[in-house]
Amino acid sequence: MKYLIVSEQTSSGYSAYSPDLPGCVTTGGTKDEVQREMKAAIAFHLDGLREEGLAIPEPHSTSSYVEIQA
């Protein structure tokens, strides 16, 4: 499965979350680190859902950019 993650720069590095997996968040010092951490966080989150006997959410979020003249 492919889950969308949103990464944002913060004052101390980066944070990331997945809109399809509420509560699944992580932080890191670099873009690469936060993406690695998010991959691990998603796997951990899905394992927890399985252990609780809960359904694994299907990915449904998408992203796109719009270009406007500023």
Task: Quickly describe the structure.
The protein has 70 residues and is α+β, with helices and mostly antiparallel strands.
Structure description:
The longest helix has 21 residues, at 31-51. A 3-stranded antiparallel β-sheet has the order 1-2-3, with helices on one face. It has a domain at 6-51. The chain is 30% helix and 20% strand. The protein has one helix at residues 31-51; strands at residues 6-10, 13-17, 25-28. The protein starts with 5 loop residues before the first strand and ends in a 19-residue tail after the last helix. The protein contains 1 helix and 3 strands, in the order βββα. It is α+β, with helices and mostly antiparallel strands and 70 residues long. A hairpin with a 7-residue loop joins strand 2 and strand 3 (25-28).
The percentage helix is 25-40%
Radius of gyration: 14 Å
End-to-end C-alpha gap: 36 Å
Unreliable stretches: none
Helix-strand topology string:
EEEH
Question: How does the overall form come out from the CA principal axes?
Answer: flat
In terms of structural class, how would the helical and strand content be classed?
alpha+beta
What is the number of strand segments?
3
Taking all residues together, what is the mean pLDDT?
Answer: 96
Order of adjacent strands in the largest pleated sheet:
1-2-3
Fraction of residues in β-strands: 15-25%
Number of helices: 1
Sheet with the most strands, sense and barrel status: 3 strands, antiparallel
